[in-house]
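Per reviewer request, we include the raw input and output of the structure prediction for the construct analysed in the revised manuscript.
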Amino acid sequence: MAKSPPLPRPPGWRCSVRWWLARVGTSVLVWTVFMQLAPIAEVWRFQRSDVRWRSTSACNATNLSLLSDETPLRESPPALPPRRVYKSNGYLQVSCNGGLNQMRAAICDMVTISRYLNLTLLIPELDKTSFWADPSDFGDIFNVQHFIDSLRDEVKIIKSLPKKFSTKVQQGLFSMPPVSWSNEKYYLKQILPLIQKHKIIYFNKTDARLANNGLPIWLQKLRCRVNYQALRFTPKIEALGNKLVSILQKTGSFVVLHLRYEMDMLAFSGCTHGCSDIEAEELTRMRYAYPWWKEKEIVSEKKRLEGLCPLTPEETTLVLQALGFERNTLIYIASGEIYGGERRLAALRAAYPKLVRKEMLLSPDELRPFQNHSTQMAALDYLVSIASDVFIPSYDGNMAKVVEGHRRYTGFRKTIVLDRRELVELLDLYQTGELSWEQFSDAVQEVHKNQMGQPVRRKVIPDRLKEEDYFYANPQECLAPQRMPQLGEFEI
């Protein structure tokens, strides 16, 4: 059968095919572009909504609720460092004595010792029997899980002892205080054999048990890592501390004055300059009431002339004025209850009306959870002290030293370390009229021109270890090469 001839094509058919192909191609292209842009648009939309959520929340949340543990920010948890695998030589249990910053430094030392001896460390116990009688546990002040996780590549830290030690605990663990200011060789030769024998050892005192100087640099850097990275306060403490800083920064720069004129300091130091006879008797009775305080008979004026007493609020006022701080300076007092109350603060408040404390900036409801917990209250002051534009301690106690070191670590922030021995002599000369105000002010500024927290080397005294510069006040091994301050940067 003959094939039928092909049907004739209508006129313009080639144009129709080209038009149809163009439509199909355009549709495919549009769909492809849409599919590519959709995820980007979704991310953009999420980010925009997230920005709006954060912005709105920031305006409404005057109590910094975004920083609290009740409404955490939507952030991915940080990656954990790899766990260090090692054969543990035994367990170390420690009881940290003293106030917040004394215990803080001790915790850093105990982690370092545990790492050096390849031990397993139990979460440290905190002092509950000292003058402050604070019942706070480690987890009431510090973020326990962050502490454990951030150090997992160095040492294993546990929350409780294995059950196999229950009998040992009931019968009493082998307990001892390490020798003060000891180097790593002491722990290797004297302590490690005891741990290998008893499997667990209990240090009942931990303050100043590791040397300031002469340790391997990796151990010094580990002390810093624990102090500045692993020891983080609880979210509630950090949230309230951040709120205090935010309130203070809204008015501009501010100074933190650590006015260590508290009852315990005056009683135990025996410093009664400026106190009435009744107050001096009260402080002496308190010193004798605590058997563990060995120094009982103290001549107050002798200690003062040696620079071993905290400045009084009245003396501090004159020093601040001599240093050039103006009347409108915002000053935050970081301390517990000032001995003598507002009566002793009258001169300071008259000279500096913008004098505030946390009790003046926060509501009673905000502070109520921290009441009767002196270490938690001190933690709030610590956070404010680290963030301040200038930090001035009236006494070189543990708080002053640890804050000074932390401020060095964060970029040599201005810290005025008062030379009390020179100051009391100048104060007496001024108050007796032997120095004019101009002479007094010039002398005070001259004494302190090199005591502003600049980079310096720690003082080493091999035969008098307790008199050396404190490691935590100047952790020089941990400070990366810093730009030297420009001329005038540290001027008063």
